Amino acid sequence: MTAGSGGLNRRERAAERVTQEARRCAEFLRARGDYSPQFDYFLDLAENGGIPEAMAEKTGRPVAKLLCIQVPVELVSAAGFHPLKVWSGSPAVSSLTVQGTPALMCPMLRAVLGAVGMKDETRESIWVLPTTCDWVVKFPELASREGRVFSPKMHWLELPHLKDGEHGQKRWLNEVYELKDFLESIGRRVDKKSLAQAIERYQRAWAALSRLSAMRKEGRLAAVWFMLIAGSFFSDSPERWSEAAKKITGSPALDPTEEKARVFLAGSPIFFPNFKIPLLMEEVGLYMASDDLCSSERIIPGAVTYRDSSLHGMMTALAERYHQGCLCPTFIDNDRRINNILGQREGIDFRGVVFHVLKGCHLYDIESRGLEGALKEGGLKFIRLETDYATEDEGNLRTRLEAYRGILGEK
Description:
- With about 400 residues, the protein is of the alpha/beta class.
- The chain has a single domain (about 10-410), classed as Rossmann fold, CATH 3.40.50.11900.
- It has helices at about 10-30, 40-50, 50-60, 75-80, 105-115, 135, 140-145, 165-185, 190-215, 225-230, 240-250, 275-285, 310-325, 335-350, 360-375, 395-410; strands at about 65, 80-85, 125-130, 155, 260-265, 285-290, 350-360, 380-385.
- The longest helix has 26 residues, at about 190-215.
- The radius of gyration is 21 Å and the shape is globular.
């Protein structure tokens, strides 16, 4: 690749823009009135985390790259790897994807594709790709069109899209066992002890996230901070992340004199530094008391409980938690997603649902149409926001959110 006019090649220029984006967002967050120095750990992870080589050095484990939270991280950890959810909220890195990609591609996966292209893949790279959406399924093919060769150490985790039937549940358990075989072939053997330790390790992280979620519901933690903390989860060991998260629970607090309309945020994931939607919602006087984003509240699927402490018993419990407990719209039998939103209303007292759709994120686009009617019937005000990683639509989004805030009425 030839050097550009400034002496930097295309990858280096993109990397510089990505660094600047992250720095600007971190500086903006540090200037907020509800900033606390205890957030610095998470801001540093957001600015500098997510690099596989750095993660391997920091955690002392080889990294297994995941393209979805559908992968049981406890199993990955038990096999001796650090699970790293590969994501990107950077508009700048998307500039590296200019060949062979659809015009209306999921912005997040486009950014991930660009991030992968910032550094050549090595034969040592390990990937686990669940078949949760078409973009993930086609990701290696899109990468190859961009001239990026995937590592041979890649495993497909085929997801049954019917989860309530016995057939789908058995298929998924078999898939989890095949993932175990793959990880053991390149890592260490997963036995009863190592899996139990890994489950306990991530239970503590889930408990820490749950306490932060409770703070948010109580109005003591702004959604943008919660999203930052949750999004940084994979960028360090679960032990260090959990300890840092525990320190947050004693502070901070929102200004109690500032009244905001409480709403629920649903839809496509939101990643640092692309906090456009939550910041605009704050600006117009909306408080995001809870969400069901796979980049935020659902970053960890929940507690893994088992009565049978055999290896098979724990594997079964793990498979059930990741399959039955998942609210992703990729599933056909997914009425519980509506019930989950309506069920949280009593405890949180929110008045509306803001549904965020990334352009090209077809699953959430389709789901938003069905959810709207059901949630309105349940007495909630609904607004659908379709956007991408660009900033040109901020004025229009702000106008729509201001009108929505008016519809919700004053408390």
